[in-house]
Amino acid sequence: MRFSPFQSILVALVALVGIFLSLPNMLPDSVKQNWPSWLPGQEMVLGLDLQGGSHLLLQVNRDSIIEERVGELRREARNVLANENGIGNLITSLPDGISIELTDPTQAAAALTAVETLQANVSAGLLAAGVPELAFAQAENGNLTITLTPDGIDQRMSAIVSQSIEVIRNRVDEVGTTEPNIQRQGDDRVLVQVPGFEDSTRLKDLISRTARLTFHLVHPTMTAQQAEAQGIPSGYFIAASQDGGDELLNENVELGGESLTNAQPAFDQQTGQSVVSFQFDSRGAIIFGQITAANVGKRFAILLDDQVITAPVIQQAIPGGSGQISGNFTAESSNDLAVLLRAGALPATLDVVEERTVTASLGEDSVRGGFLAGIISAITTVAFMLIAYGLFGVFANIALVLNVLMLVGLLSVLGATLTLPGIAGIVLTMGMAVDANVLIYERIREERAAGRSVISSIDAGFSRAMSAILDSNVTTLIAAAVLFFLGSGPVQGFAVTLGLGVMTTLFTAYFITKGVVAGWYHFRRPREVKVQLVKFIPDNTKIPFMSWRKYAIAFSLITSLLSVGWFGINGMNLGIDFKGGSAIEVQSLQGPADPAVVRERLGVLDLGDIQVQGFGEETDLLIRIELQSGGDAAQDAAVNQVQQALGEEDYQIRRVESVGPTVSSELAIGGVIGLSVALVAILAYLWFRFEWQFAVGAVISTFHDVILTIGLFALTGIEFNQSSIAAILTIVGYSLNDTVVVYDRIREYMLKYKRISLTELLDLAVNSTLSRTVLTGPTSFMALAALAIFGGEVIRSFTVSILFGVVVGTYSSIFIAAPLLIFLKLKTRGDQPEAKVVEKRADGAAV
């Protein structure tokens, strides 16, 4: 129970660093202004739902799309006519197409047949019907014209907006763990709201910059100045260079940025200047090697957004598929360019048409209520531990406070964004921290009751409880890691908070709690230790849980089937995050607008999900209403209802536009894939640590809890929105934690009791962990109940679903996870036939 002086100093330093890192979040601005520069000053970034942020409205540049497509069409037509069919031609560009003059008019029919192979149907999505992109015409003199159809342009525009949304999301995610709000607005616009990004110029550059990277060969003999004087050769164009000059480049794109697999900021080893190193995929590496081998001695230009960044001479073949981009880069600009290249190029130019600030999407009233609920939940948790464990409750609360402070400090130094899902991760972390201390204290009490000495009981309590604490937290950490790498948006934010929470919980449970208890013991040297102050579960409880297993599993099967059936028939009440809807910009005519009052007025209209944000000036609001069933007429009627509810004398509607969902299909699918992979990884870990029956039982039990939670959303009509994803992830974490604790005790008893049947052993194990379950469950429940009661209407569905998950998770760990081991044919020695039990006497003879 003693730490070495070095260990004690190290633990104290880590705890102090955690406290110092969290301090800037708790100090007033007046103090932080005079804060010494050598002390940490970075705070947690609050998300859009808690503090608001930057608002950018971007518009896809239609002219640039047409111009680029016309350029591609010119190259494709020249290739199909001259290179493939030997038909001489002279091509000129039109505003929306090309004109082809044939050197031999008698080849007009053959030329028309050749260019008609360029026809393609374009669509805005996989399920959307395609429309012809090109229209062909032939003049009397034999000349051909190919024009882009209006429908084809519209479909290409729609597809480009969808692609742009994903590229923008990747770019913002690359910068950090900020959780942006990105959605389609109208036919050709993208709405982007990013929290906590102070450099608006850099943000606009990161989001709106096309970042299209292409590689071109420079004309071997003619300069750009000569081309301007003599005429630009066919198949070449002039591009501006970063150093202020011009270059004459071949139109053929030798290699594109889509072949890049990685890009990182670096420094040139010879000059020390900032550069961007890049790596091609296998196909790109082969092409890059072939190009450089065939063009040794020629110049090879790297073109970024129509500007030549560098155009070095190819000295030798480069077979490795890697290289570097040099230019007048700073460390920050090289990092930004690497981010842009990794995230991918925008398919078109995006123009910034509106730039504003917005307030918290949850509303200031909900944010205040949420913080009040957090304080109340913390007080109830601390009070409950004091009532249950007295002095040992004080020790647990010290560890809990340090746990939260260290978590806040880590989130601050990483620049992570705290949103509603992140708060869910903190609440779950508090539950795991309390659970760890309860496991330790209950184990100390059991060891003392078994006849061990005081110091031996304390030591055994920590060492034997750590197995359950480690397994339950590692499974949660696996889930958090997988969700971070495979998820995005709210899923990733939740994973960051939960993963850091697991690490701080393990640290405080073992080092802080153990150090405080050890210090207390060596100072007081008590003859007796009373761990539990109030006994909620009598000792030697013998509830026959396994005798009810058939009824419990039958009940779970029925409710699971009902949940799946109801979900399949009626679906869920998807909010605006999933369905999209209308964005209504209103202006108050009676002074500053009050989002809480507006939300209350609109809440009685039965229009589904309604979001209200402050928008720019204090008189302006941005209202989002979800997509109404019934088509455009129903949506227009809903907008009229909003106007009537607000009152024409109080508010004026300035603009109404349709908006797409903030949770794209890619994000939703990524979340499902991440959760599935996490469960598989947990299955593998538990299989390694326990036996395969435990692994399968834990996954089935967790899956059962997810199904019932989805059934709750489907049956009750509670709105399923972006925060609901975090609610389900929280339930998964809680359920796994609960199940693994029970399984750990079962595994221990399988080694300890070798003469009882599995049914008896399961009852014994579940009853022995019942006091821990009864103490941990209500603690988490009270914390969440405070959020449900005081957090406001906006987050009530979020907290109610997690409350339901806590109840279901506790139920499943007892009535589903444990009985499943019987159905999965787990065997103990007590289950073996008596004839097969062979024992050895001391002399080695069988009896």
List the helices and strands and how they pair.
Blueprint: H1 5-22, H2 29-33, E1 45-46, H3 48-51, E2 53-60, H4 62-85, E3 89-94, E4 97-102, H5 108-115, E5 121-122, E6 131-132, E7 134-138, E8 144-148, H6 150-175, E9 181-185, E10 189-194, H7 200-208, E11 213-217, H8 224-230, E12 236-241, E13 246-250, E14 255-256, E15 260-267, E16 274-280, H9 282-294, E17 300-304, E18 307-310, E19 322-329, H10 331-343, E20 350-358, H11 364-389, H12 391-414, E21 417-418, H13 420-449, H14 454-486, H15 490-524, H16 549-570, H17 576-579, E22 581-588, H18 595-603, E23 610-615, E24 617-626, H19 631-646, E25 651-659, H20 665-689, H21 692-716, H22 722-752, H23 758-768, H24 770-790, H25 796-823
Parallel strand pairs: 1-21, 12-18
Antiparallel strand pairs: 2-10, 2-20, 3-4, 4-8, 5-6, 7-8, 9-10, 11-14, 11-17, 12-13, 15-16, 16-19, 17-18, 22-24, 22-25, 23-24
Helix pairs in contact: 1-12, 6-10, 11-12, 11-24, 12-13, 12-15, 13-14, 13-15, 13-22, 13-24, 14-15, 14-20, 14-22, 16-21, 20-21, 21-22, 21-25, 22-23, 22-25, 23-25, 24-25
Task: Walk me through the structure.
The protein is α+β, with helices and mostly antiparallel strands and 847 residues long. The chain folds into four domains: 61-157; 211-345, Gyrase A, domain 2; 364-529 and 545-570 and 666-831, no CATH class; 585-659, Alpha-Beta Plaits (2-Layer Sandwich), CATH 3.30.70. It is 55% helix and 17% strand. It is built from 25 helices and 25 strands. The strands form seven sheets. Strands 13-12-18-17-11-14 form a six-stranded mixed β-sheet. 44% of the residues are buried.
